[in-house]
Amino acid sequence: MTQLGSRPVPGPGRRRIVAVGVAALLVAGCGAFRRAPIDVPPGHRVVLGEIVTSGFATPQLILELTREDGSFQEELPIDFERSPFVITLPPGHYLVTRIRVNEQGRTGPESTNFRLAITFDVNDPAVYIGTIKIERVAFLRQLRVTVVDDYEQAVPAIRARYPELPSEITRSLARAA
């Protein structure tokens, strides 16, 4: 006979299966949020810095980088208004040529492009290029770009997330034209 409002109590076998399932989900979830170690391809150097943006309708932006001779191009995604980054690039003189803004969350003709003129050099095994501040001037298609040397604060903060960074990180500050 069944009483109203009572539920059958799961047996010990069922509890064990549920516990194993929950543990598996926790382990998988923790692994999903773990950052990947820095993979430095042969001939590449480590480049670190920070991008600070303001005045854009969305923080989802993409910086387009190209080596001066055109032989290497890279896209640097920006997801927050303040985005520290660690990337690898082959040695050379680099130009940040454009920032792409996708204000409607779609790709295609809706995305907005802004030209930039930022340069930096990558020669040493690990270089800090500074904090690049990109401000969109309200109601205009103009950008104000400044580069700040926050080496003493930025490098230890980035090193805390990436302890495998080389012991020596030289300054090679970007320049806004």
How would you describe this structure to a colleague?
This protein is an alpha+beta fold and 177 residues long. It has one domain (45-176). Helices cover 18% and strands 41% of the residues. It has 2 helices and 10 strands. The strands form 2 sheets. Strands 1, 4, 7, 8 and 9 form a 5-stranded mixed beta sheet that branches. It has a 5-stranded antiparallel beta sheet with strand order 3-2-5-6-10, with no helix packed on it. A hairpin with a 5-residue loop joins strand 2 and strand 3 (73-78). Mean pLDDT is 81; it is low at 18-34.
Could you give the topology of this structure?
Layout: H1 12-32, E1 45-54, E2 61-67, E3 73-78, E4 82-89, E5 92-101, E6 112-122, E7 126-136, E8 143-148, H2 151-161, E9 170-171, E10 175-176
Parallel strand pairs: 1-7, 7-9
Antiparallel strand pairs: 1-4, 2-3, 2-5, 5-6, 6-10, 7-8
List keywords for this structure.
alpha+beta, five-stranded antiparallel sheet, five-stranded mixed sheet, 177 residues, 10 strands
- H-E string: HEEEEEEEEHEE
Global mean pLDDT: 81
Helices, by number, come to: 2
How many domains?
1
Task: List unreliable stretches of 5+ residues.
Answer: 18-34
Strand content: 35-45%
Content-based structural category: alpha+beta
- The amount of helix comes to 10-25%
How would the global form be characterised? globular
The radius of gyration is 23 Å
For the sheet with most strands, the description reads:
5 strands, mixed
Would you count the extended β strands for me? 10
CA-CA gap between termini: 84 Å
